[in-house]
Amino acid sequence: MTNLKDAYKQNKVGPVFNGGDVAQAAIEAAEWDNPDKEIIVVDKGAYVRISAEMELILTRESMAEALGRDFQMNEIEIHLGSMAGQIEVTPEKIRFFFEKTL
Predict the structure, then answer these.
(1) According to the model, what pLDDT value does residue 3 have?
(2) Low-confidence residues of the chain: pLDDT under 70
């Protein structure tokens, strides 16, 4: 647990999804696409927060595999309620990141 006086030093990035199948697929995809990272998942039912330190990547291929169907990265926008960090979207991946740290 992080000490509150040090909370400002956190550099967690990632999406906050509305609940549902895309959010659940993103949990799996985050683990697959970021094997060297500790992925933190907070599932509140109505929303799911997925985060990692400094950078988190979700690929189209992993999302499609986790969903069991074709997936286009622009579908993320429909399910994305919020996010932490900066975002970069290509047809093949979405990247949440910080260029500067606290």
Answers:
(1) 54
(2) 1-9, 101-102
Can you list the domains of the chain with their CATH numbers? 11-97 (3.90.56.10)
Question: Model pTM?
Answer: 0.86
Give the Cα separation of 88 and 102 in Å (integer): 20
- Side-chain half-sphere CA neighbours of 73 within 13 A: 15
Phi, psi of 45 (to 5 degrees): 85, -65
Q: CA 31, 36, 38 angle in degrees (round to 5)?
A: 60
Spatial distance between the Cα atoms of 37 and 64, rounded to a whole number of angstroms? 21
Q: What sign has the CA pseudo-torsion 94, 12, 29, 81?
A: negative
44-67, pLDDT tens digit by residue? 989 999 999 999 999 999 999 999
